[in-house]
Specification:
The protein folds into two domains: 91-342, Beta-galactosidase, Chain A, domain 5; 355-598, no CATH class. The longest helix has 55 residues, at 27-81. It is 46% helix and 24% strand. The strands form four sheets. The chain has a nine-stranded antiparallel sheet with strand order 7-8-9-10-19-16-15-12-13, with no helix packed on it. The protein is α+β, with helices and mostly antiparallel strands. A hairpin with an 8-residue loop joins β17 and β18 (298-309). The protein is elongated, with a radius of gyration of 43 Å.
């Protein structure tokens, strides 16, 4: 730094110092400034204190108003709900009961089951399988108190106690108590439910000594085709002294029981929610409402109203079954409740046949894990059992075939106008040859119950659910190899938006089998157009079974394929020339009329006489 710079800095410092000294406040000025600051501080403190006092006054006023409002609300609740006023308000909370099979969530609002999840099962798209969930499901009973009608669904219960598998919920009303208790034992789909009332006789009023429990549930679709699932869903109920009946979910309908019932079940294709009264419900009714929109993922809206006894000091014991419609799982409850009726296997003889089929099916399960192979073995076994009938039917048809030239000779001799004479001559030929014209039909008729039984068995077999075989990913649902989203008029409505390969194969094999049968039975007497009509049935099968369980189509496909093989095998061992020679030998023997043939001829004779009398008039 040079000498000039240093000189400049010194001069600037002297000038700044001089100005500071010239403007320095006096003692009087400093004292005045202090008095001014103190006055400002006093004013600010006074303002803060005034605001604080105002805020305190406002809070006190709000508290007084709130207390007044609370007292008003409490008085209003007391006027409206009486002794249940304390339960009229609250916040919904949940208690979860859980074992290795079921997870139940219970709401404190109404102390009702809010949701149920089955741990071992999934929906068709891999989501948790929930039987019931949400506010659209209701459970509780209605009662009268303080000249008003109440629903326990709208009251808030206190949790008296809870654990992993047991919970008690209580409402205190003066000296009375209303208690809902739930317990879920380990390794069980059955939950216990008890309603206890203590000193409630003077609090709850009833006209007929009973209370009505109302149960409503939105039954959700769990399978791939909601429309197909709806065919096997419904409300099932067991009368105390009689059998099980049901309302189908395919249409909206209601039913009054008119007598005691033991249980009511909301059932879909493979799972059920069952409400059981250990001492029976006094009476009740049930109703189904089917969604108008068929693409909806709701099977039905189910509801039931059930009456239970009430004295004021009651201990009502119930059970809930939330689980699969599985014959093995339902076996422990069969003696007491007949819950196996939830697995619909047809009526009368069909159910008897299916009971035997189930035993065989479960026997194969012990050795084979592939359900496609089990169905194959089951089909082979059934066809072996029916083989004698198949053989007898073929032989009878073969007899008719070798007699065809003689029947045509009769038709050539007797004109069409004399149809009765033609029929009598044909029957005389059959009698002499020892041929029963019904011989080919009766064995087939005897096989029909088994065919119909299988039609009931496969859609109800939960064992097939989500079991894959070849290209079918789920044997309980259709096996689509081609799908489309476009709505094609008529086709989408009656056929669907997919092609099921097993159904297609079943239809093809039926067409082949129809062709073979026509070669065996064709005659000059065949009605015009009948040949084409015979092929309509396999085509109808293709439309009818396209949405059905692929396991069912697979069974019919294999069954028809085996029948074709049996027919071709029998044909190789049945000598038609030798059969014709035997029939001609029978024609030479004195014919003995059976009672059936005699009655048939008498009827034909009477018809002929009646026809002649009609012509004379």
């Amino acid at each position: 730094m040079d000498k000039n710079s240093i000189t400049g800095i010194i001069l600037i410092t002297i000038i700044l110092g001089f100005f500071w000294w010239m403007n320095k406040p006096t003692e009087e000025q400093l004292a005045e400034q202090q008095r001014r600051n103190d006055s400002i501080a006093l004013v600010k403190n006074a303002q803060i204190e005034a605001k604080a006092q105002a805020d305190l006054a406002a809070q006190q006023q709000q508290a007084a108003e709130a207390e007044k409002d609370s007292a008003t609300v409490a008085q209003e609740l007391s006027n409206k709900y009486g002794l249940f006023a304390s339960a009229a308000k609250g916040e919904q909370a949940f208690v979860t009961l859980e074992n290795n099979l079921v997870k139940m969530k219970i709401s404190t609002k109404g102390a009702r089951i809010y949701s149920v999840e089955l741990k071992d099962y999934k929906t068709h798209d891999g989501q948790p399988l929930v039987l019931m969930d949400g506010e659209q499901n209701k459970f509780g009973f209605n009662f009268n108190h303080n000249t008003r009608s109440f629903e326990t669904n709208e009251l808030y219960f206190n949790v008296a106690s809870s654990s992993n598998n047991k919970a008690d919920f209580v409402i205190n009303a003066d000296e009375g108590q209303l208690i809902f208790s739930y317990s879920l034992p380990d390794n069980s789909y059955m939950a216990d439910f008890n309603i206890t009332t203590r000193d409630m006789g003077s609090i709850i009023s009833t006209n007929n000594g009973s209370l009505g429990i109302e149960w409503k549930m939105n039954v959700a679709a769990q399978e791939k085709s909601a429309d197909f699932e709806r065919r096997y869903a419904g409300i099932y109920y067991k009368f105390a002294e009689n059998d099980v009946d049901h309302i189908n979910a395919a249409s909206s309908k209601s039913e009054d029981f008119g007598t005691k019932v033991q249980w009511v079940a909301f059932k879909d294709q493979f799972f059920s929610s069952v409400f059981i009264a250990k001492n029976n419900f006094l009476n009740g009714s049930a109703a189904t409402v089917t969604p108008e929109e068929k693409t909806d993922r709701t099977i039905m809206d189910a509801s039931a109203r059930l009456d239970v006894p009430f004295t004021g000091n009651d201990n009502l014991n119930f059970q809930f079954y939330f689980g699969p419609n599985d014959f093995k799982i339902l076996k422990p409850y069969e003696d007491d409740y007949q819950l196996r009726e939830l697995v619909y296997l047809g009526w009368g003889p069909l159910r008897i046949i299916n009971l035997g089929v189930i035993e065989v099916f479960h026997f194969f399960e012990g050795f084979i894990s592939n359900y496609g192979m089990i169905i194959l073995l089951l089909t082979i076994l059934i066809k072996l059992i029916l083989f004698p009938l198949t053989y007898k039917s073929y032989v009878s048809t073969a007899k008719m075939k070798v007699l065809k030239p003689q029947i045509e000779e009769i038709n050539n001799k007797i004109p069409k106008e004399k149809a009765m004479e033609r029929q009598q001559a044909t029957m005389a030929l059959y009698r002499k040859a020892g041929v029963n014209p019904m011989g080919g039909c009766l064995p087939m008729l005897l096989q029909m119950p088994i065919l119909f039984a299988m039609f009931q068995f496969f859609p109800a077999a939960i064992d097939l659910r989500q079991q894959s075989f070849l290209w079918a990913t789920d044997l309980s649902s259709y096996d689509a190899i081609i799908t489309w989203n476009a709505d094609i008029p008529l086709i989408s409505r009656f056929y669907g938006n997919h092609v099921s390969l097993f159904t297609l194969l079943m239809s093809i094999t039926n067409i082949v089998y129809t062709r073979i049968n026509q070669e065996m039975t064709q005659s000059s007497q065949q009605m015009p157009g009948m040949k084409g009509m015979m092929y309509m049935m396999p085509i109808m099968f293709m439309f009818f079974f396209n949405n059905y369980a692929s396991g069912l189509s697979y069974y019919y496909f294999i069954s028809t394929l085996i029948t074709i093989g049996q027919t071709l095998l029998i044909r190789r061992f049945v000598d038609e020339d030798a059969l014709l020679a035997k029939l001609k030998a029978n024609q030479k023997k004195p014919a003995k009329k059976s009672k059936f043939q005699q009655r048939l001829e008498d009827m034909q004779r009477q018809q002929a006489q009646a026809a002649k009398k009609g012509k004379k008039k």
